[in-house]
Structure formats: C-alpha cells, structure tokens
C-alpha cells in the first residue's frame, strides 16, 4: 500500500502525518511539509493510524497525554533506528544529552553520530527528539526550530537553560 498523509494544525504549526497501512512513518514540520514525504499520497478515506495519531497529538498538546501508543515504522539505518528507539525511553518531563544517548547505546564516543541521527528523526514529538539537549543544558538544533523545541519542553515542564 502507498503511504498516505494528512495535514493538521497544532500549537507548533502545521504538521504532516504520514502513515503506511499499519504504521506511522513520519511527522513533518510545516517548513518540511511543502512536498509530502516518502512519496505519500493524500489521504482519501479515514485511516486508523492517522486518526489515532491526530487524536493522541491533540491530547498531548492539551496537556492530557504524556506518552504515545502508536504503531511506529522508523525508516533509516540500523544506527539511526537504535537512536530513535532510545528517544522513546526518555520519560515525559525529562531530558537527556547526546552523550547520554550514546552511552545508553553502548557507544560513548558516538555523540556526534547520535546528534546527526537525532536530527533526522522522522517521527518528532512522538519519538521525543526535543528532549535531547546539549551537555550544558542548552537547547541545540531542532528540525522544528528552537522556538518549537522550547515550547515542547515548556509543555512538558522539562528542565533546560534559557
């Protein structure tokens, strides 16, 4: 089946949700959403994964949900998928450094590779790459923009430096 997409409005701008027949495969930021990712086609009928994702994101932004229960299909290299799965272990309201993730993966010298993989996370918010900050607590690059990263951390009341 061809991937399908749906665009939704959110407090962090328009998001494009992309799903296969059974999995969420991407959430693209507004600036990335000009062309549908992964060659997806517009959704033409109700889609269980997109419906579920939209409901869970709405609850998250309303402060009614702290985690997501969605079927995910991370498309990337083995290392990238390991990093993205590690993101799923960061609890709501907490942050980790890139080094913390590298150590968690058993590759403490792979801090930069973790940063690169984090920056290519295809399913932001759900796989909370916004919870990864600099070793000194500062906000670092974020595909959705640092303003949205700060918004998400504030929503979760995660500690950070301004």
CATH topology of the largest domain: Arc Repressor Mutant, subunit A
Architecture (CATH level 2) name of the largest domain: Orthogonal Bundle
Strand order of the largest sheet: 3-2-1-4
Helix and strand run? EEEEHHEHHEH
> Percent of residues in beta strands?
5-15%
What's this, in brief?
This protein is of the alpha/beta class and about 160 residues long. The chain is about 30% helix and about 15% strand.
How does this structure look, described?
This protein is an alpha/beta fold and 162 residues long. The chain has helices at 48-61, 78-87, 98-104, 111-119, 146-156, and strands spanning 4-8, 15-19, 24-28, 41-42, 96-97, 132-133. The chain has two domains: 4-61, no CATH class; 78-156, Orthogonal Bundle (Arc Repressor Mutant, subunit A). It has five helices and six strands, in the order E-E-E-E-H-H-E-H-H-E-H. It has a four-stranded mixed sheet, covered by helices on one side. Helix 3 packs across helix 4.
């Amino acid at each position: 089946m061809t991937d399908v997409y749906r665009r939704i409005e959110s407090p962090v701008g328009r998001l494009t949700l992309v799903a296969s027949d059974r999995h969420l495969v991407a959430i693209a930021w507004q600036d990335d959403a000009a062309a549908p990712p992964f060659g997806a086609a517009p959704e033409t009928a109700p889609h269980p994964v997109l419906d579920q994702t939209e409901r869970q994101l709405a609850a998250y932004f309303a402060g009614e949900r702290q985690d997501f229960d969605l079927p995910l299909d991370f498309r990337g290299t083995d290392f990238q998928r390991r990093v993205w799965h590690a993101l799923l272990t960061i609890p709501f309201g907490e942050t980790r450094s890139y080094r913390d993730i590298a150590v968690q993966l058993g590759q403490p010298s792979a801090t930069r590779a973790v940063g690169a993989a984090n920056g290519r996370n295809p399913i932001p918010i759900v796989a909370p790459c916004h919870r990864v900050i600099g070793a000194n607590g500062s906000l670092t690059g974020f595909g959705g923009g640092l303003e949205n990263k700060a918004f998400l951390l504030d929503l979760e009341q995660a500690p950070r430096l301004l």
